[in-house]
Amino acid sequence: MISATTGKTQSSAMQASVLALNKTYSPVHVISAKRAFCLLSKDIAEVISVEDGSFMNYDFSSWIEISELRSEFNERTELEDWIFSVNFEIQVPRVVRLLHYNRIPNNTIKFNRRNIFIRDSYRCQYCHKKFGVKQLSLDHVVPRSHGGGMSWENIVSACRRCNTKKGGRTPSQAGMKLLQKPAKPSRNPVLLQQVKHEKYACWRNFVSTKELLACE
């Protein structure tokens, strides 16, 4: 049983993101390290490690052995997350494969504030500047007073200044131009956001080139 020691580092390591693949190596979910270890310990999943361009498959016990060897030879890197249990040290895997899950991902993506901000790269779609979450708001491209609804195609990120300036008008009426046409993401925005970071670079082996270009 893995029991993380106290401290911010251990806590954050347990919450690190892990890409879960189905049996045919297609991305299904982004889960926490804690959830991944639970699946591994029950033999529901295996670790997929990308090493020199090849995929290596490890069951839970093998991954523990590999982790202990890497720790013994001081092969850790700053981009990795590690968990220290009572009896052993283990590296947090970046990818796991569900051994008995054959379903094709249905790409159901939650329509919510967070995913819209991620889709739009935290950038106001009118002035094109990046902002923090607290400085961003949601704007109806076609206002509700004009029949505009709540959908991926009609809601964009906007800074408060631009949202106020636009008011209850369409972009053309307000003399404002959208940075890009809003659309439903083809993949979970969280995955596409994290795959840009070097920490999760190995995820790029399981995401299409088209999707990678779309998130740049």
UniProtKB/TrEMBL annotation:
Residues of the signal peptide: none
InterPro entries assigned to the protein according to its UniProt record, in alphabetical order: HNH_5, HNH_nuc, NA-targeting_endonuclease, Znf_C2H2_type
Keywords, comma-separated and alphabetical: Endonuclease, Hydrolase, Nuclease
Annotated GO MF terms: endonuclease activity
C2H2-type domain segment(s): 124-146
Pfam family, one: HNH_5
PANTHER family to which the protein is assigned, alphabetical: OS07G0170200 PROTEIN, SLL1193 PROTEIN
Entry protein name: HNH endonuclease
Taxonomic source organism: Gimesia aquarii
